[in-house]
Amino acid sequence: MVTQGNPLAQTARDLGISEFCLRTWMNRDAIDSGRKAGVTSDEHKELVELRRRNRVLEMENEILKRASAYFARENVLPK
């Protein structure tokens, strides 16, 4: 509606949303369609998932390090 020439404020009122919300949606659409530079929604979603997976792997790695140190101590010290 805005791209067809309707004022942003009027369009937001007609849709029952804030101007900021409508402007954000329009900005996201411009990025996703390639008209504007930025991280697309799909790229953002993938980045969030990769960061989450990285945190899990780092925790698993820390657990393995601690377990390795624990078992190494068990084998070195006399019983």
Describe it for me?
By secondary structure, the chain is mainly alpha-helical. It folds into two domains: 1-38; 39-79. The protein contains three helices and no strands. The chain has helices at residues 8-15, 19-32, 41-76. The radius of gyration is 26 Å and the shape is rod-shaped. The relative contact order is 0.06. The model has no long low-confidence stretch (mean pLDDT 91).
What's the topology here?
Blueprint: H1 8-15, H2 19-32, H3 41-76
| Helix and strand composition category | mainly alpha
Which residue ranges are poorly predicted, with pLDDT under 50 across at least 5 consecutive positions? none
* Through-space gap between termini: 79 Å
User: Beta-strand level of the residues, as a percent range?
Assistant: under 5%
Chain-averaged pLDDT: 91
Count of individual domains: 2
The general outline is rod-shaped
The helix content is over 70%
Helix-strand pattern, N to C? HHH
DSSP E strands, number:
0
What's a concise summary of this model?
The protein has 79 residues and is mainly alpha-helical. The chain has helices at residues 8-15, 19-32, 41-76. It has 2 domains: 1-38; 39-79.
Offer a few descriptive terms.
single chain; 79 residues; mainly alpha; 3 helices
